[in-house]
C-alpha cells in the first residue's frame, strides 16, 4: 500500500516557476505517496494548513516553499511526532541547510522517498514555535531591509546587501541575558539565540557547529566597539562557521542553556525564523526532541566529479588513455 502525505505548497515562494515545480514534485512522489495537496494563499498560511492536516489525522506532512512556509509548517508540528518532509524553494533555504536536507527538488524528493527520520529539538520564543533562531539587533534589521521586491530581483544577494547597509548604521544597546543559573549584562550590537542555524546565519556562529539534538539553545552575542570592529567580527564569525572552530575574538561571546531570556534597553526588533515578530524582551525555551524530520539516510559522500548539466557537454572515453594501457 502507498504511503500518504499532506503536501503544503507555497505557489509564490522563491523565483522559480511554481507550476513546473509542483509538476516535478508530483512526478517524483506520486508513484509512491498518495499526496493530498494544499496551496497556501495570502489568507490561508502554512500554519493553518498544517494544523488542519493534523486534525484530519495526516500520517506525514511535506512542506514546500521558502523558509517562511517551512518554519510555519514545522512550528505547527512541534510535539506531534508527525514526520515532516522538506522541499525547499525559497531565497535563502536556511531551514534545509541547517538541518542537512538537500535543497534541490530532485534530491529533496529522494530524501522523502528513501530517507530516514531524525528527531531534533525545537523551541518556543514568547510562546511562538521556533525551529531555527531568534535574532535581536542586526539580524532583525537585515530581514526588514531585504524586502520582497529586492528578494525577487536579487535572491540571496538581497540579504547580503541588507547586511552591508545595516553595518553602515551600526548601533549598540544595553542587554541583560538570563539563563537557568546566571544573569549577564553587557552592551551589544546583536544577540542571536539559535536552536539550529545554517553557516550563512553568521551571527549565530559563536560556538560554531550547532548541535540540533542536544536539548540546548546556543546564544551568540556580538559586541564590537565600532563599525570596523563590527565588520571584523562578522568576518570572524563567517570563518568560525566555515572552519567549525568556535569564535575567539573578545567582542564575541557564546553560551548554551535550556532557557534564555533577553531584555534590552532600548527595546530591539526581534526576528523569529525569518519573520519580524515584535520587540524585546524575549523568553526562549528549548523543546528537546520536539520535531521529527525526514532526512537523508547518510551524509552525502563528497562527489569526486560533477560535470552533468554544463552547457554543450560531451564526454568521450579515451581509447588509448594511460589508464586503459595500464589495465
Ligand atoms: N498564494 C499566495 N499568494 C501570495 N502570497 C502568498 C501565497 N502563499 C503564501 N504567501 C506568502 O508567502 C510568504 C511566505 O513565503 P516563503 O517564506 O515561503 O517564501 P520566500 O519568501 O520566497 O522564501 P524566503 O523566506 O527564503 O525568501 C508569506 O508571507 C505568505 O503570506
UniProtKB/TrEMBL annotation:
<dbReference type="Pfam" id="PF00781">
    <property type="entry name" value="DAGK_cat"/>
</dbReference>
<dbReference type="Pfam" id="PF19279">
    <property type="entry name" value="YegS_C"/>
</dbReference>
<keyword id="KW-0418">Kinase</keyword>
<dbReference type="InterPro" id="IPR004363">
    <property type="entry name" value="Methylgl_synth"/>
</dbReference>
<dbReference type="GO" id="GO:0016301">
    <property type="term" value="F:kinase activity"/>
</dbReference>
<dbReference type="InterPro" id="IPR005218">
    <property type="entry name" value="Diacylglycerol/lipid_kinase"/>
</dbReference>
<dbReference type="InterPro" id="IPR017438">
    <property type="entry name" value="ATP-NAD_kinase_N"/>
</dbReference>
<protein>
    <submittedName>
        <fullName>YegS/Rv2252/BmrU family lipid kinase</fullName>
    </submittedName>
</protein>
<feature type="domain" description="DAGKc">
    <location>
        <begin position="1"/>
        <end position="129"/>
    </location>
</feature>
<dbReference type="InterPro" id="IPR045540">
    <property type="entry name" value="YegS/DAGK_C"/>
</dbReference>
<keyword id="KW-0808">Transferase</keyword>
<dbReference type="InterPro" id="IPR001206">
    <property type="entry name" value="Diacylglycerol_kinase_cat_dom"/>
</dbReference>
<dbReference type="InterPro" id="IPR016064">
    <property type="entry name" value="NAD/diacylglycerol_kinase_sf"/>
</dbReference>
